[in-house]
């Protein structure tokens, strides 16, 4: 029985459990719900959960463990001399799975009988041709040990599937019987269901946490690999970034880090004042009509994909800046030689962050109670004095949080940098020069055709890890600021 | 209109501080104040009493144009402060509010230290020459707000960390610190215990020597204790206005009588 059928049976049993649990509870209360400890639906839910939870848990575990188990068993058929390392082994194993799947298709199409498939011999039959005829294309002729392994694979999978269906259905049935036997007038079904819900919520929370942990671990693992191949002092303190896929790369993070920092700084210098002033205007001065129009307009900016901002940087802002600061520019300064520059990316990224800062700050400013403003106005303060001395200080922790959030986004932004800032890793103070950032380099290191085990590719993980640590510190700092001010103000 | 105001002022200049004529207040479609005419005297405590929702707070807020901050609120008629119409376009509401201070129904200290709360008004209006001067103003105001003894050791702790009653006295002290000519108080004692109430009432009595004080209250006893004049509002109308003693012992209007004897409200 395939997993989906098993699942349907379990669900059907659960539905039966719901009805039966309810009915049994009602019967034990002689039809009067006031005699029951809990509402009838809780007894139903309890029976349903007793069927579903253990059976599904078993099924999930089985589905995860069975392939791992079969894999190790099947691998014994592959002679050690036929592969050099674990990469080659996994290639052979994927051949095995492919042949096994092909045999299944062939049996279904009637090319082989079930017994044939189990007893085939690669000398006597051209497996490749036979499988090709049912639409499963193989890259090469089937080695005898691959066929043997594939047959073993099929046999084990088949047994496993049968055993799994039996075990899961038996467990579901056991759950049903057990819960129905427990169901009576005084049974506290409501509390049980409450606990089950709690478990569900905890599970959701742990999935979120565990995923984060998994991401971090995968980063850490690869970063450690990288530092085995490349000295960390050179990575953190090296002043040049010059990867060459032939080896002998210089992989210093500082130029990238500087680019990230510089571009983010310009972006924030653009976005923070404009966003904040826009938020103050919208929340304190604008009439409802203006506000109703301007706020959605600002938020449209937030919905534009970053690649579009990137195009804007490349096609509009860059050339415009060159026209101003370039060799033949209006200002005659000759500061800028090409459209891609820190300034271009910074300006455009700043525009991207404006709605981010303004809509967050607007919400925060609006949440400052009106009584606070009344108090200040009632003392003869003007509107701007009130905003500066009462509203903004009260909203400050939130605003700082918004700014740091925007900073995290600026640091993590990639598309605008790729299109707007160029790809040259450079340590320079001139904002009109092309530079690049950590994220842009992560992309280019992983999209090249470097071997994944080389330092040139693994460096991407080290870069990612560094970025992650920085953003983490930024967030912790944001929390710290918010907490500090909260202590002072509440 | 303006001319009559001037003659009016010369006639009873010593007593009338605020004079309202034919005041109407609308919140969108709600007609909250109807045809109110009243003369509020200087160096006197005037109490506004009346059942909940009758428009006491609304009328009080028209006296320092705090209603300007409510978009849907419209005020008609004229209110003269020292003979000058405060709704005249020439009048700067900010300047006006420095002269007509306000204490709100709910305590609303700023999220700043106790010291900065009090120093807020004096700083804005430049009332202190230097830090020492400001210290003196802060201490004096806190003493007048009957809260000095409780906070003198923690002037730099946040004002929001005080108890509700302490916060309200802080707000009174804050309003007094700007040296207004008129002090409007909207149920200043509704969050206070009897002892703090007594202190605030003493303070109000004290303030009467220099200021014109208007107080909204739900407590008849309080109105009787602290005020010299009482105005009774009902459904947006000013029903009766006169000496406190007269209103409480010998009300003319039957609605006033029912209210003070506890039959409406
Ligand atoms: N901001 C507002 N928007 C709309 N209507 C309002 C507003 N403020 C007050 N009102 C209405 O105006 C009328 C008078 O309200 P007001 O607050 O002046 O009453 P009050 O006498 O102070 O009552 P209380 O003793 O409960 O404080 C009420 O009907 C109220 O619903
Ligand atoms: Mg009121």
Can you put this structure into words, describing what you see?
The complex is a heterodimer of chains A (490) and B (265). Chain A is an all-alpha fold and 490 residues long. Chain A folds into 2 domains: 3-187, no CATH class; 241-489, MetI-like (MetI-like fold), CATH 1.10.3720. Helices cover 75% and strands 1% of the residues of chain A. Chain A contains 17 helices and 2 strands. Chain A has a two-stranded antiparallel ribbon. In chain A, α7 (189-229) crosses α17 (455-489), α12 (342-366) crosses α14 and α14 packs antiparallel against α17 (455-489). Chain B is α/β, with parallel strands linked by helices. Chain B has helices at 2-11, 56-62, 93-99, 114-125, 131-144, 148-151, 164-177, 194-207, 220-226, 244-249, 254-260; strands spanning 16-27, 30-41, 45-49, 73-81, 84-85, 100-103, 182-186, 212-216, 229-234, 237-243. Chain B has a 6-stranded mixed beta sheet, sandwiched between helices. In chain B, β4 (73-81) and β5 form a beta hairpin. In chain B, α4 (114-125) packs across α5 and α4 packs parallel to α7. The N and C termini of chain B lie far apart (37 Å). The A-B interface holds A 287-288, 369-382, 385, 389-390, 393-394, 488-490 and B 64, 66, 69, 71, 94-99, 101-102, 104, 106, 108-112, 120-121, 124-125, 158, 160-161, 171, 174-175, 178. The structure holds adenosine-5'-triphosphate and magnesium ion. Adenosine-5'-triphosphate is lined by residues 27, 30, 32, 52-58, 70, 72 of chain B.
Q: Give the overall average pLDDT of chain B.
A: 88
Number of helices of chain B: 11
Strand portion of chain B, in percent?
A: 25-35%
Our measurement of the CA-to-CA distance between the termini of chain B, rounded to an integer number of angstroms, reads: 37 Å
Can you lay out the helices and strands and say which pair or pack?
The complex is a heterodimer of chains A (490) and B (265).
Chain A: H1 3-28, H2 40-75, H3 86-109, H4 114-119, H5 127-133, H6 144-182, H7 189-229, H8 232-237, E1 241-242, E2 250-251, H9 254-285, H10 288-303, H11 306-325, H12 342-366, H13 370-378, H14 383-412, H15 415-420, H16 438-447, H17 455-489
Antiparallel strand pairs in A: 1-2
Chain B: H1 2-11, E1 16-27, E2 30-41, E3 45-49, H2 56-62, E4 73-81, E5 84-85, H3 93-99, E6 100-103, H4 114-125, H5 131-144, H6 148-151, H7 164-177, E7 182-186, H8 194-207, E8 212-216, H9 220-226, E9 229-234, E10 237-243, H10 244-249, H11 254-260
Helix pairs in contact in B: 4-5, 4-7, 5-7
Magnesium ion binds next to helix 2 of chain B.
